[in-house]
Write a structure and sequence with these properties.
186 residues, single chain, mainly alpha
């Protein structure tokens, strides 16, 4: 039985995404289950949902990896960098029990925002690179990704709650625009 390199790339890609999805779902389950240690905050909740959607959107595009005719090790390393960056970002935002009970969810969110959004900015640059690697070139989706990169860089640079509220709404709009641009699941 011959296993293609594309299948191996896709398997590790999906495995890393699965770890991240599990991490986000466990964090959501704590809130849904009414865990008093996990007090919900609107900004934290919004970014948790957006993280889950990003994970699912990347998972949906796993099939694109199977369409690559020839894989090189450097391309493989670049491909798995994305799920790793996303996992790091979700681990920063949703650390679990490591946050002391005396720290509010909003304070935690603001205290990790520089690292979290810095990682998301790197992820957006990765997405632009993946589009090039997979032969997409510069498209409307690339422009939306570049806008998202600028947005998360701005969010990384400030702890002002008002900026984060507006930025979170803009991020949701950009995600929806990207979804619509891809043809609702294409």
């Amino acid at each position: 039985m011959e296993i293609s390199k594309g299948l191996l790339v896709a398997l590790l890609f999906v495995t890393l995404l699965g770890l991240g999805i599990a991490h986000v779902v466990v964090a959501m389950a704590g809130v849904v289950g009414g865990d008093p240690e996990r007090r919900p905050d609107a900004l934290l909740a919004a970014w948790t949902v957006l993280l889950l959607l990003v994970y699912l959107e990347l998972f949906w595009h796993t099939v694109d990896l199977l369409n690559v005719a020839e894989w090189q090790f450097t391309g493989f390393l670049y491909v798995i960098l994305g799920p790793i960056l996303l996992f790091f970002a979700s681990s920063v935002l949703l650390p679990g029990a490591e946050v002391p009970a005396s720290v509010t969810a909003r304070d935690h969110y603001l205290s990790v925002s520089r690292r979290f959004f810095g990682l998301l900015a790197l992820l957006q640059l990765w997405v632009i690179g993946i589009d090039r690697l997979l032969g997409g070139g510069f498209t409307t989706a690339t422009a939306l990704t570049a806008a998202a990169a600028v947005l998360v860089a701005v969010l990384a640079s400030t702890r002002r709650t008002a900026v984060h509220v507006v930025g979170t709404m803009v991020a949701a709009v950009l995600f929806i625009a990207g979804f619509v641009n891809h043809g609702a699941g294409g």
